[in-house]
Each structure stands twice: as C-alpha cells, then as structure tokens.
Amino acid sequence: MKSIQVKIGKDGKPVLPKGTADFKRIDATTDKDIADQQRFDDEQAIMKVAQFAKRVRKSVGMSQFEFSQSIKVSVATIRNWEQGKRVPTGAAKALLKVLDQSPELALIALHR
After folding, report:
1. Residues 25, 47: Cα–Cα separation, whole Å
2. Nearest in space to 74 (alpha carbons), one of 92, 58, 51
3. For residue 41, what are the domain limits?
4. pTM listed for this prediction
C-alpha cells in the first residue's frame, strides 16, 4: 500500500498534496450538482463558439447579412450562431475554421 505525507494547515485541516482528491467533497457532490455543472459547462462552450463565429465574421469585415450571402446560409442562422442559440456543425463549422485561418482564399473559392 502506498502512503503519502499530509500536512496540517493553520485551521487544523489537512492540506492535500497536489494531485490528490478531496473525497469528502466528492462524496458530498449530488447528482443535481453534477447536472448543474454540466449545464454550465455546456453553456460556456456554446458561448465560446458564438464568440468565434462573430469574430470570424467581423474579421472579414462583413455585416451579418453580407456574411450570410457569402457563405450561403440564412441571416437568421448567422444571428443564431452569434447569439448562442445554435451551434454550427459539419460543413459550416469547417468553413468557419477555414475562414478564420485563410479568409482571402476561402472567400475567393466561395465566389467562383
């Protein structure tokens, strides 16, 4: 069996070494706590994608309408992406990545 040395803090509680778990806290975590954290994490991820979509559009210097016409999706779709109501998937997600990395080439290819 492996043993670890534990230091006691000024408050009398053990100071856990880096990389160890607080099992009391883990045991006290409820299914609701986990679901709430997962919901929060999902919302944060969606907002990150929304910010990315908006940044890409702004980096090419287009309005939502112009951008929607350029990439052949509805302006409502662009608005939903940027507000975090929807998340681009598949080809749209790939296109945003290409527009982010090489906007000039992507726009040339789209307008041929």
Report:
1. 29
2. 92
3. 30-110
4. 0.70
